[in-house]
Every structure is written in C-alpha cells, then in structure tokens.
Design a protein that fits this description.
A seven-stranded mixed β-sheet has the order 1-3-2-4-5-6-7, with helices on both faces. Helix 4 crosses helix 5. Helix content is 38%, strand content 12%. The chain contains twelve helices and seven strands.
Length: 260
C-alpha cells in the first residue's frame, strides 16, 4: 500500500456529481452496507432492477453508484480508471458503516483499484473484467475498435443467457452507455491494481458460460485473491439482470453473513 500518493496530491481527481440509488431494510440488523459498482456502460439501474431490494429484504442496506459519465451521474468525457476508483471510494466513505463493495465487469477492476484506497469490510468481484490481451482476443470485433476510441458496447447475446427473453435483452442493452475512451484504453492495457487496504476477504463470482470473461480468467483473478471462483453455469455476463438473478445474489449475501 502506498502511504503517500504524490501524483494524486498534485493532480487531484476533479469532483463530479454521482448518482447513488439505495434500498434499506425496515429494521436495522447491524449488517454492513453493500455498495454495488456497475461495469463500463452500465449504470446503477442494473442493480436497482432486482438486487437492491432483494438485499434490503435480507437485512442489508444496499446502494448502487453510477460511475461519472454513466447512468444519471454527471457526464465526464475524459475520465480514467483513477477517477472511477475515486468515485467508488468516495461513495463508500459516505455510507453509514464500513461497506462491502461488489463490482461487476470492468467495475470489478475499478473496485479492485478502490480497495487500495478504502478499507472495505469485504469485496465481491462479479464477472470481473481485468483487461489485458486476453480480453481483447476473446472479443476482438468489440475490444479492438474500443482501443481506438469507439464505444465499448456489447450485444445482448454476449451479456445474457438464452433463458432471458430476447425482448428483455434488447431493452436492457438499449439502456447501456459507454465509458470514456481513455478508461477503455486503460482497461485493455491491463493495468494491475495495488493490494487492498486491510486485506479484506474477496469473493470472485461468475459463470463458466460467460461470453466475455473466460473460466480461466475467473480462476486467475480468484487465485490472485487467495480463493476459487463461485460459478453459476448457464448464466450470462450480466448475472444481476439474467433470468436466474436470485441465485448469485443469495450466494453473495450468504457468504457475507458467514464472513462478517
């Protein structure tokens, strides 16, 4: 962990208005709040669709933040991974208790960077896209144009399983936006995050049938954090929107109840 970050002191991240959606339980059971972080192009709405209320029903105060330039957060054209990680760390720091952070897709990489700045209770990396050559080669028709500034947008067939009705998949993908070109390039460059502050428990969750993240990539990220991935066969990349969305969120909350 770096104690002094000279570059960040000299060039602080500009402030930006952040969208924060929430769902809170009727009775406070003292459980840690959970902050959900969407991936590139996704906004807080992807967790508000099912997971926020479900987590609240199970006694967890649940929040979802839209990274700058995403969802209803302020539009910012030149954001980078450092700015996105700043958004996550600041959102977590504003919660009433030390939070658990759940990051999805490229938002899992952003979460990993934020963990070097915020002492999370625990973290979950959901369908983590940590970038690098493997990501580009697995999706060359999408990833390579994104390296030159085109929008990184994926079709429904790569985000969801065949169980999700095609009309629902089209409706979800129509709501997707895009990350900044600089952040897309940094993602494909595969910059590794620093170690987390305080060594929190980290769970990696995904699907072996994910068309964006390979099973070997899931295992590699899980090994990096000292564990094995929790897998949900038959599901797509966007597990929180897929037909069987209850299975992964219940498994995550079960794990949190045991580890905290």
């Amino acid at each position: 962990m770096k104690v002094i970050r000279a570059r960040e002191w000299a060039f602080p991240v500009p402030p930006a208005r952040r969208e924060l959606r929430r769902a809170t339980p009727e009775v406070d059971e003292g459980k840690p709040p959970v902050l959900f972080v969407p991936g590139f192009g996704h906004g807080a709405w992807v967790f508000a669709e099912h997971w926020l209320e479900h987590a609240a029903d199970r006694g967890f105060a649940a929040y979802a933040v839209s990274l700058r330039g995403h969802g209803e957060s302020a539009p910012v054209k030149k954001a980078d991974l450092r700015a996105y990680a700043h958004d996550v760390a600041q959102a977590a720091a504003g919660l009433p208790r030390r939070a658990v952070i759940v990051g999805h897709g490229a938002g899992a990489l952003v979460t990993a960077h934020a963990l070097a700045r915020y002492p999370a209770r625990a973290a979950v990396l959901l369908s983590p896209v940590f970038g690098g050559l493997g990501t580009a080669l697995r999706n060359p028709m999408v990833s390579l144009p994104a390296a030159f500034g085109a929008g990184l947008r994926l079709p429904a067939g790569q985000l969801f399983s065949r169980e999700l009705p095609a009309s629902a998949g089209r409706a979800y993908t129509a709501r997707l936006g895009r990350a900044s070109s600089r952040a897309q390039w940094q993602l494909l460059a595969g910059r590794k995050p620093e170690p987390p502050v305080g060594d929190p428990p980290v769970l990696v969750v995904g699907s072996p049938d994910d068309r964006i993240v390979s099973a070997s990539a899931l295992r590699r990220v899980a090994r990096h954090y000292g564990g094995a991935p929790l897998l949900f066969p038959g599901m797509g990349h966007d597990l929180m929107l897929d037909t069987r969305w209850r299975e992964p969120i219940d498994a995550i909350l079960d794990w949190l109840e045991k580890s905290n």
